[in-house]
């Protein structure tokens, strides 16, 4: 039981980092919002499920990749932590810069015409899997929860937990932003949200860089 509880803070920290990362709209979230507003809630949900499936794939690839690297090269943990911590600090900079900006979010309908629900699902998956920042983001998230010598269930808990959170949050975006009212409400609170995100990413980045291996 003691071993179980010792890994929980890292797992919950990884969950928190994931939740806050998707609270700040990027290309995938803006695509979901734009699709829900421009076409309809059901199309937005299909796109959201595709994005969530892409997140699940990235999480699996990252967990197995990092586990394999750490099994072969135990000293590689500090390199992974440096990469993850540096990326979190970059996210902090971007979030704080966005908080200081007056520029609001721009949610637009996807180019290429209307699609079937399966077409939007595939498009969402492709959007997430071709995001060049996704690999670094998942290295940072997994690094927060995957300690040296952690058992397999820790990685599984992070992957499954973030997958369920991804489905819930992306679908929530699709449903909530199916009307322009929510976009306006978000715009009014955007600076505060981005400021909180920037602070969290900065603290998490410093923690990851200065924490013990």
Task: Explain the overall architecture.
The chain is an all-alpha fold and 213 residues long. The protein has one domain. It is globular. The two termini are 22 Å apart.
How is this structure best summarized?
The chain is mainly alpha-helical. Helix content is 80%, strand content 0%. The longest helix is centred in the N-terminal third of the chain and has 32 residues.
- Percent of residues in beta strands? under 5%
The secondary-structure class comes to mainly alpha
What's the number of domains?
1
Total number of helical segments?
8
Instruction: Compute the average pLDDT.
Output: 77
Task: Based on Cα principal axes, name the global outline.
Answer: globular
Reported for the largest beta sheet, the result is: none
SSE topology sketch:
Elements: H1 2-23, H2 27-38, H3 41-72, H4 77-100, H5 117-129, H6 134-145, H7 152-176, H8 180-210
Helix pairs in contact: 1-6, 1-7, 1-8, 2-3, 2-7, 3-5, 3-6, 3-7, 4-6, 4-8
For this entry, give a set of tags.
8 helices; single chain; 213 residues; globular; 80% helix; mainly alpha
């Amino acid at each position: 039981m003691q071993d179980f509880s010792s890994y929980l803070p890292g797992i919950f920290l990884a969950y928190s980092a994931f939740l806050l990362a998707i609270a700040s709209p990027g290309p995938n979230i803006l695509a979901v919002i734009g699709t829900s507003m421009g076409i309809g809630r059901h199309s937005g949900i299909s796109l959201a499920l595709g994005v969530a499936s892409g997140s699940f794939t990235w999480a699996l690839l990252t967990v197995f990749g990092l586990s394999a690297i750490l099994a072969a090269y135990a000293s590689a943990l500090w390199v992974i932590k440096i990469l993850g911590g540096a990326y979190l600090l970059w996210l902090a900079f971007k979030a704080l810069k966005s908080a200081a900006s007056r520029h609001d979010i721009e949610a637009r309908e996807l180019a290429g015409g209307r699609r079937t629900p399966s077409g939007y699902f595939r498009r969402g998956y492709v959007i997430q899997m071709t995001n060049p920042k996704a690999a670094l983001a998942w290295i940072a998230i997994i690094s927060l929860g995957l300690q040296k010598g952690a058992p397999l269930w820790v990685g599984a808990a992070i992957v499954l937990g973030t997958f369920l959170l991804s489905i819930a949050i992306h679908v929530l975006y699709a449903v909530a932003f199916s009307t322009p009212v929510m976009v306006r409400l978000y715009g009014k609170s955007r600076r505060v949200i981005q400021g909180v995100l920037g602070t969290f990413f900065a603290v998490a980045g410093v923690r990851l860089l200065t924490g013990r291996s």
